[in-house]
Amino acid sequence: MSGAGRVWARGGTPTRAVVLLLVVAACTAFLVVIPGHRGWFDADIYYETVRQWLHGGRIYDYQRPGTSYGFTYPPFAALCMVPVTLLHWPGAVTVDVGLSVLAVLALLHWLVDPIARRLGWQRWYALGLLGCLFAILNPVRDTFSFGQINLLLMALVFADYRQLVCGSGRFAGVGTGLATAVKLTPGLFIVLLLMTGRRRAALTATGTALAATLLGFLAAPGQSRYFWTSALWNTDRVGSVSYISNQSLLGMTSRLVPGAGARPVWLLLVVLVLALWARRSREAARAGDQRSGFALTGITCCLVSPISWVHHLVWMIPALLVLADAGWSATDRGRRARLLAAAAGGCFLLTSGLVWLWRFRADGIGGVLGGNSYVLLGLALLLGMPPRPGSDLESRAPVGGGGELSRRP
Question: Which positions ≥6 away from 12 have C-beta within 8 Å?
Answer without folding.
Answer: 408, 409
